Structure formats: structure tokens, C-alpha cells
């Protein structure tokens, strides 16, 4: 091997190593911590999310739906959408209710999520966060998967979700986002 080929090969290896280090450092960067006192939650997003609100018509009447969402313009972390949704139900609907009623509300949230996207429910597990009941579900849609955690906190429904493409299923950013969510109001 000639001296110049050896130098060229060492430069190529060095450039590749620097590129990998740079990629790993950019992927491992801290996410933005989003805290909302008025919506009573915190969550870590890959970048600063946008907040919006809309009225939705339900069997219980019009409800305010607050959405905090981040959609990357480049799929550098493999996911298309990260969001937290908060919907407040009328308090009188939840006075003196038992766990069967809360289960039926969460069942309705699961069924609604699946039917709204015309997807297929892949799993549905009962979960608890800060003493509040919830559901962890995964929905298959034509272009990918939707991971959803839904929590019922008294008369408030919190929904966290991540949408990923088929080829990017079960990536680390999904868990990172869903596990970062916390409710500010605790039992």
C-alpha cells in the first residue's frame, strides 16, 4: 500500500468517525421540556411544540380540546407526530362514579381512537399514572402505527400519542416521549 493511499484511508476513517460522533451527539441532544400549569402536565418534546385549541362535539356536548403537538419537518428521529391532548368533561358526569364507569370512559376513548383513524387495534393494556387509571394502546394504520397512552384524571382525559412510519416502528423516541409525560395534579 502506498503512503498516499494509507493517508487517504486514514482521512476517510477519521471523517467517518467524526460523522458518526456528530450524528450521535445531535440525536442525543436534550429535548425541550414543555410544562403547562393551566393544562396541568409536563412532557419532553424533540423540539418546541405548538399549542392549539378547538371545540369538539360529543354526546356530552361541546368540549374544549387542547392540543400540544410537534411534527418534525424532517424525520430525523423516525416519528411524524408527537402530541398531548387534554379534554375536560363536565364535572357532574363524574360525581360518585365507580371504576366500571371510568373503565367505560377509557373503553370509549380506545374505540374512538381506533375508529377515527380506521385502524386496527394491536394491543390494549391497563396502566396507572400517579394513581389515575389509563390505557396503553397501539393502532396500526395504513402508513404506520399510532402509540397512545390515555389517562382519566377525575373529569379530565389526557391523551399522549406518537405516530411513526411502518419502517420505524418501536423506535426509542416513542418510549422517550410517552415516558416523559407526567400529570401535575396528583392523588
Describe the model:
- There is one protein chain.
- By secondary structure, the protein is α+β, with helices and mostly antiparallel strands.
- The protein has two domains: 1-30; 31-183, Protein Transport Mog1p, Chain A.
- 28% of the residues lie in helices and 43% in strands.
- The protein is built from three helices and ten strands.
- It has helices at 3-27, 99-116, 172-180; strands at 32-36, 41-45, 50-58, 61-70, 79-88, 120-129, 132-141, 144-153, 156-165, 182-183.
- The strands form two sheets. The protein has a seven-stranded antiparallel beta sheet with strand order 3-4-5-9-8-7-6, sandwiched between helices.
- A hairpin with a 2-residue loop joins strand 7 and strand 8 (144-153).
Helix content: 25-40%
- Give the SSE string: HEEEEEHEEEEHE
**What's the shape?**
globular
| Total separate domains | 2
Roughly what is the average pLDDT, rounded to an integer? 84
Specify the CATH architecture of the largest domain.
3-Layer(aba) Sandwich
- Number of DSSP helices? 3
Q: CATH superfamily assignment of the largest domain?
A: Mog1/PsbP, alpha/beta/alpha sandwich
Topology:
Blueprint: H1 3-27, E1 32-36, E2 41-45, E3 50-58, E4 61-70, E5 79-88, H2 99-116, E6 120-129, E7 132-141, E8 144-153, E9 156-165, H3 172-180, E10 182-183
Antiparallel strand pairs: 1-2, 2-10, 3-4, 4-5, 5-9, 6-7, 7-8, 8-9
Give a summary of the structure in a few sentences:
This protein is α+β, with helices and mostly antiparallel strands and 187 residues long. It contains three helices and ten strands, in the order αβββββαββββαβ.
Amino acid at each position: 500500500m502506498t503512503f498516499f493511499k494509507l493517508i487517504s484511508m486514514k482521512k476517510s476513517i477519521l471523517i467517518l468517525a467524526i460523522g458518526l460522533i456528530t450524528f450521535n451527539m445531535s440525536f442525543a441532544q436534550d429535548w425541550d421540556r414543555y410544562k403547562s400549569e393551566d393544562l396541568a402536565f409536563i412532557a419532553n418534546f424533540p423540539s418546541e411544540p405548538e399549542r392549539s385549541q378547538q371545540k369538539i362535539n360529543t354526546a356530552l356536548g361541546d368540549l374544549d380540546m387542547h392540543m400540544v403537538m410537534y411534527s418534525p419537518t424532517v424525520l430525523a428521529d423516525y416519528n411524524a407526530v408527537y402530541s398531548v391532548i387534554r379534554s375536560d368533561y363536565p364535572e357532574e358526569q363524574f360525581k360518585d362514579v365507580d371504576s366500571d364507569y371510568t373503565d367505560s370512559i377509557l373503553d370509549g376513548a380506545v374505540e374512538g381512537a381506533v375508529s377515527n383513524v380506521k385502524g386496527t387495534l394491536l394491543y390494549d393494556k391497563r396502566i396507572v399514572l400517579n394513581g389515575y387509571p389509563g390505557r396503553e394502546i397501539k393502532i396500526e394504520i395504513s402508513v404506520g402505527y399510532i402509540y397512545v397512552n390515555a389517562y382519566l384524571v377525575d373529569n379530565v382525559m389526557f391523551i399522549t400519542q406518537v405516530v411513526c412510519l411502518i419502517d420505524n416502528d418501536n423506535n426509542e423516541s416513542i418510549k422517550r416521549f410517552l415516558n416523559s409525560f407526567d400529570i401535575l395534579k396528583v392523588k
